[in-house]
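Morning - magnesium ion inputs below, output right after.
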Amino acid sequence: MKKYKICVIEGDGVGKEVIPETVRVLKNLGDFQFIKEYAGYECFKKYGDAIPSKTVETAKECDAILFGAVTTPKPHELEGKVYRSPILTLRRELDLYANIRPISNFRDIDFVIIRENTEGLYVGREYYNPCTEEAVAERVISKKGCYRVVKFAFEYALKHHRKKVTCVHKANVLRVTDGLFLKIFYQVSEEYKEYNIEVNDYLVDTTAMYIVKNPKIFDVIVTTNLFGDILSDEASGLIGGLGLAPSANIGDRYGLFEPVHGSAPDIAGKGIANPLATILSGAMMLYYLGMKKESKILRMAVKSVVEKGYTTPDLGGNLKTREVTDKVIEEVKKYS
Ligand code: ATP
Ligand code: MG
């Protein structure tokens, strides 16, 4: 088997705890070359740069990127200096347009949110007009942006044997922007007619309600940037919080895998961060690299660790980060 090159960026806070643990697990599943690079607020303080160009270069040379978490400093800590989050830089530089967030508790809840990752309200076009005393944010929805993320969602559904794709929008109010997203959604769905994938659409507010009330109606959700951000955090509440929520950022050429959670400064350094969100992101990376068997073994290993109650305090257990990882590795060895 090919020896894959993995760019490893720990970042800040608990990123420095959960990433090494995930690397330790991955070493039991394949022969990888791990290349460590730097990014984040600590990197910024040390080198004056939140993401040195060498980090981006290495990321582009590798087969996949494993990313921990980075701290966003408070404005007063910056003393007027400009800090742009490295993850936003990477998403842009590598054109990682689809953000995939599977929501699964390994039992009855199992759906995936695919969020457009490059445009919408996140383009950073905000201004204040003192004449009219209006603050304005521009929401950019391009044809190309809609097409590629919707297409990605259908391809994802096919590959993962999913049966339904739901478009989530607010086209009744945002007639032009979400109108375009919705129109392209149904256009693309025509290309997938022969596969018998059910398609439908919901308003974002209705979706927020159903995620709490009846999440089983969802299979694959595809939506714009801000809605996807909010709904996926809401949905992670269904599966016991951020400690179990993995994610992938995918483009046509690169894939970056990271836990949904941030650097969790409140628990950093205590050895109690839940490593499972990052380990599950590692499983998504294995799948992306074509190591389907290994990916499945890793997911099964995490499932049995959770079922047996070998968890950190956030999931009600009393194990340390390291001990949970040891349990995962034990299970991996059983299945391999
Ligand atoms: P950032 O600014 O880096 O996004 P944050 O505080 O906004 O940090 P998170 O880091 O996602 O957001 O943390 C939110 C809450 O979830 C915190 O209370 C944190 O302790 C908890 N949390 C996050 N990640 C984990 C983890 N891996 N294990 C246990 N608890 C976690
Ligand atoms: Mg956060």
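Note: The radius of gyration is 20 Å.

O.
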